[in-house]
Design goal:
The protein is mainly alpha-helical. The chain contains three helices and two strands; from the N terminus they run αββαα. The protein has a domain of 54 residues. 61% of the residues lie in helices and 7% in strands. The chain is globular, with a radius of gyration of 15 Å.
Length: 82
């Protein structure tokens, strides 16, 4: 496989929910996260909403995936600089 080309496997909705709930579960149970006009939510409520797949849960999943992609891209960028 040529450098820079990788097989990308899309995550299923279930895999995304598991990933996001795992990331949320390590946060303090007292944390409050604001999602703009959608309101502010505690950790456990966010986990429930991600598991249900409602609008807030979907938005949070998208935010988390975007963050993970940018984190991965930053690591790749740093690796290519050396």
């Amino acid at each position: 496989m040529a450098k820079g080309k990788k097989n990308r496997k899309a995550l299923s909705d279930e895999e995304v929910r598991k990933l996001v709930t795992a990331r949320l579960s390590v946060l303090s149970p007292d944390i409050i996260i604001s999602l703009g006009s959608d309101g502010a939510f505690g950790r456990d409520e966010l986990i429930e909403r991600v598991e249900r797949g409602d609008n807030v849960g979907e938005k949070l999943a998208e935010i988390q995936l975007d963050w993970l992609r940018s984190f991965k891209d930053e690591i790749s960028y740093e690796d290519n600089r050396h």
